[in-house]
Structures are given as C-alpha cells and as structure tokens.
Amino acid sequence: MPRATTTSDPFNAVAEPRRRDILNCLALHEKSVSEIVHALEIDQPSVSKHLKVLKDVGLVQARREGRQMLYKVNAMAIRPLHEWASTFVHLWRYQLLRIKQRAEAKSEERKPS
C-alpha cells in the first residue's frame, strides 16, 4: 500500500520533527512566522515551508493581521493524533503498574521474617 503524501495526511506531516516543534510552539498562543523563527531558531524559509504543510493538512490555521500572518493550532484537526497517541498512554500505564507490582513483590520476598 503506498504511503500518503506528507501534504495529505496529518500523521505523515507530524512525522517531521521540525513540524512537531512548530506545533508545540503554537500550542498555547497564536504566533507570527517571525515569532516562531525567533522561538525555535530556525530560518524563516524553513518555518514557512513547514507551516504550509501543516496548513495544507489542516493542523494549523492562519489569519492576516495587517502585514503579518498569524498561525494557531487547529485543535479539532489535532484530535485524531491525540486519540491515537492516548492508546499508548494506557499501554504504558499498564506496563508501569506491572513493573511496580513486580518490584514490590521482590522487595517483600527479600524482607527478613
């Protein structure tokens, strides 16, 4: 089965670490390209390229304010990514609980009677 292009699938889009960095940067506040460039210390053409991909797949939204474009995360588009990743949160909680139980059982075995 052929892989979806980066510009058509949010999962492929976030496979690129710089795009995840940009999403993290935009997580709490809307920012301009120059604010993202400054915060992440990435050159402007690279930030613009990554923002275009994120916008094309719907993960970010843009609006014009004067001469600047401001970008923010599209929370509804992020939701499928969150739901998929939360599956693994449950898995790790279960695994950590099992590790804790084993460690406590071994500790009890070592205690003198």
Relevant CATH superfamily: Winged helix-like DNA-binding domain superfamily/Winged helix DNA-binding domain
- For this structure, the CATH topology is Arc Repressor Mutant, subunit A
CATH class: Mainly Alpha
The helix tally amounts to 5
Q: How would you write the strand order of the largest sheet?
A: 1-3-2
Largest sheet: 3 strands, antiparallel
Number of domains: 1
Written as H for each helix and E for each strand, in order along the chain, the element string is: HHEHHEEH
Radius of gyration computed on alpha carbons: 21 Å
What ranges have pLDDT less than 50 throughout 5 or more consecutive residues? none
Structural class: alpha+beta
User: What portion of the residues fall into strands of 2 or more residues?
Assistant: 5-15%
What sort of overall outline do the alpha carbons produce when their principal axes are compared? elongated
- First-to-last CA distance: 61 Å
State the share of residues found in helices, binned by percent.
55-70%
Q: What's the CATH architecture name?
A: Orthogonal Bundle
